[in-house]
Write a structure and sequence with these properties.
The structure is a single chain. By secondary structure, the protein is mainly beta. It contains 2 helices and 7 strands. A 5-stranded mixed barrel has the order 1-2-3-5-4. 23% of the residues are buried.
C-alpha cells in the first residue's frame, strides 16, 4: 500500500489544474518567458504578472498552441487554478482576456483539461487557418 502511494505521488505533476482552487485576476504583464514545465517535453509560455495585491507567474500553455502571446505592458484578465510553491504563486490559465487586442483565449475546459491535447490526439497540430486556437474577438 505504501509503495503504491509513493508511486502515485511521484507520477502526479507539480503543475496540475485544481478546480477547487481557482481565481480570476486582473493585472499587467511584466514579462513573457518560455519555460520547460516539469513533466512536459515542450516549452510553455509563462507570464510574470502583476495584480493589485501580488506578483505571480501565469502558465498559459505550450508555445506552439498560443496564437497571440500577450506583450509586456498588456492589461489582462486571467482565470485559472492557483497553487503556491517555494518559488512563489502560480496561476494555471484556463482563460485569458487581453484588453489591448480585445481578444479572449480559451486554454482549458471548465474541468481544467488542456485544449491542446485535442489537437495532439488527432495526430497533427492545427495551424491558425484551421482553427488551431480557440480565440474570439470581443465587440
Amino acid at each position: 500500500m505504501h509503495f503504491l502511494l509513493l508511486v502515485v505521488l511521484t507520477v502526479i505533476p507539480k503543475y496540475f489544474y485544481n478546480v477547487s482552487d481557482t481565481a480570476t485576476v486582473k493585472g499587467e504583464v511584466l514579462s513573457v518567458e518560455r519555460e520547460q514545465i516539469e513533466g512536459s517535453e515542450v516549452y510553455h509560455v509563462v507570464l510574470s504578472f502583476k495584480s493589485v495585491n501580488t506578483t505571480l507567474k501565469v502558465v498559459l500553455g505550450p508555445a506552439w498552441f498560443i496564437e497571440e502571446i500577450p506583450r509586456r505592458g498588456d492589461s489582462c484578465v486571467v482565470s485559472g487554478s492557483v497553487f503556491r510553491t517555494e518559488n512563489g504563486i502560480y496561476l494555471i490559465a484556463r482563460k485569458l482576456f487581453n484588453s489591448r487586442t480585445k481578444t479572449s483565449m480559451s486554454l482549458r475546459t471548465e474541468s481544467g483539461f488542456p485544449l491542446w491535447y485535442r489537437q495532439r490526439a488527432s495526430g497533427r497540430f492545427m495551424n491558425r487557418a484551421e482553427g488551431g486556437q480557440n480565440r474570439q474577438r470581443q465587440r
